Amino acid sequence: MPTDAPALPVGLLAQFYREQARDLPWRNADAGPWGVLVSEFMLQQTPVSRVLPVFRAWLERWPFPAALAADAPGDAIRVWGRLGYPRRALRLHAAATQIVVQHDGVVPWDVDALLALPGVGDYTARAVAAFAHRQRVPVVDTNVRRVLNRIVRGNDDAGPATAADRALLEPLLPAEGVAAAELSAALMELGAMVCTSVRPRCDECPVREHCRWLAVGRPTRTVHAAKQTWHGTDRQVRGRILALLRAAPGAVAADDVGALWPDDAQRERCVSSLLHDGLLARTPEGTFVLPG
């Protein structure tokens, strides 16, 4: 049973990961740092099942940063498809361009250099440093945070990962970089597959004997994650507009865009925001195209 000293059963977690981890293409050695970076962009707020086909198509077309940088940003939006949050495609294109210009086409290994890339935040920078370059840095997403909360803190509070979570994990990592990266991956996999947010499979958990939350009777959470909506939102309207542009062989008439949504004010607001974000361009003739 848990003691008062924070700890993680590293050996059990490593065994779980080696025996039960999903076979995902970005975990293969041949994915390289570019494959890891692409996967981390795509996996933000998006399930693995939706990412897999787009990831494979992306790497087949753009196997290294210079290949993506040589194509138009609109091509990135088109291949991104319906993954959602399409600004990620633009930022990934911008990151590839910066990698070519500033790093000779090689994904940097240093966390600070990764943080300087467009679209790369605290989590993504550390994920690439750990999973691609095997550095000893704490990698904490919502899955890892949930596992840490339950095993180490003994609570089930939800919410985004914070610097405090990274500070909690850092001293618990093994000293060697490869083992530290494996532990972060194991925590992530445990949270995704066993220690889930809803209906966790505690009876099947390989570290249940070390879980503070289970030991104190699985108290209910006092902090809840914010729920996101979709239907009727600007996100839905923006998605419809971009889907029309992705499917079109060329420019799309303003009337065709107008027919997509009955609320004129909301539709025009979404068109304006897409233009502002650089996801859409208006031609001199008044038609719409993806950015070139």
Automatic annotation (TrEMBL):
Pfam families: EndIII_4Fe-2S, HHH, HhH-GPD. It comes from the Bacteria. The keyword Zinc does not apply. Its EC number is 3.2.2.31. SMART domains: ENDO3c, FES. The keyword Amino-acid biosynthesis does not apply. GO terms for molecular function: 4 iron, 4 sulfur cluster binding; 8-oxo-7,8-dihydroguanine DNA N-glycosylase activity; adenine/guanine mispair binding; metal ion binding; oxidized purine DNA binding; purine-specific mismatch base pair DNA N-glycosylase activity. Residues 42-193 form the HhH-GPD domain. CDD domains: ENDO3c (cd00056). This is Adenine DNA glycosylase. It comes from Nakamurella sp. A5-74. The lineage of its organism: Bacteria, Bacillati, Actinomycetota, Actinomycetes, Nakamurellales.
